[in-house]
Amino acid sequence: MYRRSAAAAVLLAAALTLTACSSGGDDADADAKAKPPASSAAPDPADAPAPSAPAADAKPTGPVLPDAKLTPKTGSFTAEEKKYLSGRVPEKMDPAAVLQTGQEACQRVARTAKRDKDAATGAVIIGEIAGAKDAITHLCPDQKPILAAAEKGFPEGPRQSPAAGNYRALTQATNCTWEAKGKDGAVLASGPETPPKAGDKITATIPAGTAEFNSSGCYAWIPA
To answer: Is the pLDDT of residue 15 over 50?
Structure first.
């Protein structure tokens, strides 16, 4: 009886080990699988851990390495990498560590854009992918269409004196609402006119003379 129980315990332990290994492989591949279009107020960009180096969009307030000393411990930086690092590396930090934060921003933009370009554009607009502008400009120029779209957009919330025109919300959430007011506080336009259904595109027309455009649950906007 003892031998049978011991054998069963060994088999169970082996099965659990194999299951754990299998689960680890699924987690590793999860980031490569496409996600369905977001149905919440804010499309989720590709997840990535926060960088340990200074935030990619922040420049040090203290002494920084001069450009002449922007050299890695091994190999060399490209001209564009040096441009990215210029004025961004604290005096006692390895430039390669700072460069990595920019590269991680590029990777997040690329992965998110592969799944959903609107989600990537929105993440850049609201700053959810830190340092995306400088990273794209110098380290991943293939993502410049995302940056160009983001630079024409703006996040949800109050916006003073917006340019008149038609805009599209970068979300498929059904709780997105917007309102345009004139200088006297009168409502010039609002929407959506009818409650949107899941997956519907939500648009807004900002009339000329709008003093404030306010929206909620819309994530971000770009010209329609």
So the answer is: no
Cα separation, 177 vs 193, in Å, equals 10
The predicted-structure confidence for 180-213, as pLDDT tens digits, reads as follows: 999 999 999 999 988 888 889 999 999 999 999 9
Beta bridge partners of 222: 168
Inter-helix orientation angle 144-151/117-126, to 10°: 60
SS3 5: helix
Q: How far is CA 24 from CA 20, 31, 34, 56, in A?
A: 6, 12, 18, 30
Write the DSSP string, 56-112.
TT---SS-B--GGG---SSS---HHHHHHHTTTSBTTS-HHHHHHHHHHHHHHHHHH
Phi and psi at residue 56, in whole multiples of 5°? -60, -25
> What single-letter amino acid sits at 74?
T
CA 170 to chain centre: 13
User: C-alpha 122: how far from its chain's center?
Assistant: 7
